[in-house]
Amino acid sequence: MSDFIYSKKKIENGILSKEIQKIYQDDKPSVQEFHGEWGSLAVSDNIYNGFQLYETDDYILVVIGGPLLCFLDKQFLEDNHTSEGTKQIYERIMKGLMAWDQDLSGPFAILIINKKTSKVECITDLMSFIPVYSLCDSGNILLSTHVDALARASGQQYNIDFVSEADFILHGVVTYPYTIYKNIRQIAPASKHLIVANNTDIFTGNYWIPREKEKYNSIDQAAYDLRQALQNYVNNIAGSMTKIGQFISGGEDSRILSGLLPKDSTRDAFIFLDNMNREGKVAKKAAQSYGANFKVELRSKSHYIDILPVCHHLVGSGAQYHHVHTFGFHKKCMLNEYPAVFGGLFADALLKGARIKKIRSSIRFPFLPQIKNSNYSAAAPVNSGIFNKEVLSQLNNRRQDHLNYVSSFRNNSADEWFELWPSSMNMSIPNIYGNRRLFRSYEPFMSKDVIKISASIPQRWKLNRRLFRLAAKPLLKQTKWLLHGEGRLPYFPWYFNMFVQFLFWSYYQIGKRIGLIKGNQGPWGEWNKVIKSTSWERAMDNYSDGIKRIEKVLNEKNVRKLFNDTDLNQMQQINLMQVIYSLSKKSL
Prior knowledge:
alpha+beta
């Protein structure tokens, strides 16, 4: 199932289904509803093969996502519209054998309803890649995998948390466990939750926590285990598939993915660009080197503002909509017809220290070695001229509370895991929120073994791609001399690439200034041009009424001045546009 809404109290037939279908603008999924003494449940079709809802006389079992079942030798991922995988999970649970941190790998959320006793259990994955939200009060308990659907189903859609809105505008995320809605919270990652009669306290504990405990004495052993973890995950998912989709780029993650995928399968490698630029040319060479079919699709200059309405509803409030880079292309490329489409998301976050803050020179000059900024704190006081002091004070307290929580099990790397635990603290995670609702998306770097390796290695192994390169080296051999889109050779270590990347960086800087290099050479859209476009101006006017719902916490209440005359950076302006859309009449 792509989404569910559960209510402990019975809700009139059809209401929950409508709220789930509002997630989608087109191609609305079919939704099943169930009602009993235990409450009400609405569940939309699961696009992952083998994971339809499973029901017995006593139980209803819902699986969201398409996790790898590690307790089976053979998967069933090409069997359309069956519940075989859900049934296997049910039987393992009934036998008392399920170990949640070992038996399932990848994004998932599980809901188990005992129709006889009215006991309900909800289990989240290791990082809450698929978040679950809850509303608990004296009258009812509701759970859902979509925050806006839950808000509408519970009548909370107008009960906005202004501190969370400020948080999202300034940081692109909402600090865990808060949401955009005052009375709705995100439930914990890697946890089990129990709902029973006359009980509103549903949290029963974590089944796994990424404690800061180093497992490896040797970086070579860690690299070997990482490579095996990736290969095993890919083999178990794609081993018997004859046709596979994948995403390709000018970077290294997609090359590693290409090296992992079975060579006897037909592999179609997709990239989406503004134009066939340097990124596309490098990606094409990489695809050819690994024997994949290169497929490029070009987007309009206004693509990222055009998709705001539909992608906002797809990912939900408090998540950046524009990370759903595939939207629109999922139809053009017929991605939903592939039994699996592989991506490389979270390789940077988990393995390459993307969430470790570096000293300024490491950021400004990418050819210099990465050095951790030891003075950085994720909970440093937030300053902003557009919000009043009371809101900022509450926001600072929330961020400090979350950092304190993460510090309780990761003392030396709390600032890194502040943005990882749960994964909703990472700005790029809405990519999964969107993709998993559109096609069968699989992300090897989100497998359980990769997560556990990331949690058990020192930060110094992540910096400068030390561990990552050692693990990836055999898979990069075919493109040994193909430059990365950023101008380095991923096969070689950082000290070799200092000189290579310096030359590329210098050429690029000079080329842009003298007009030798023109246009967008990267994979994503040019926000500088989007923000100056007539489409952006039109959106600002169309959604301007949304500002009225949060104006009491703003120092500046004029929409145009907020966008043009404040200290908001580019990304914060994009977040503000999404917020005013979400609060405008256009979004209703």
